[in-house]
Specification:
With 81 residues, the chain is mainly α. 54% of the residues lie in helices and 0% in strands.
């Protein structure tokens, strides 16, 4: 997959997160989304489903999933490339 398409996809995830958290004006790609409550327990399932929809890849929910989706950088590395 080209780097430009990958960037478009991760930016789509970023825009979705920003639409859910109106108080944020930007989300750095290395920001821990869970520790900073950008993704909370109520929105986690919706977040994972969005990643699957945009990437076209299944997100296996196991012991490693939190580390794989914790930052936008990690989402891009694990699901968008």
């Amino acid at each position: 997959m080209s780097q430009l398409i990958s960037l478009d996809k991760i930016n789509e995830v970023k825009q979705w997160l920003l639409s859910k958290k109106k108080y944020l004006s930007d989300i750095p790609f290395d920001l821990d989304l869970i520790e900073n409550d950008v993704v909370d327990s109520l929105s986690f399932v919706e977040y994972v489903l969005l990643i699957e929809e945009i990437s076209g890849r299944e997100v296996v929910v196991d012991d490693t999933v939190l580390d794989k989706v914790r930052t936008l950088d990690r989402v891009q590395l694990n699901y968008m490339e």
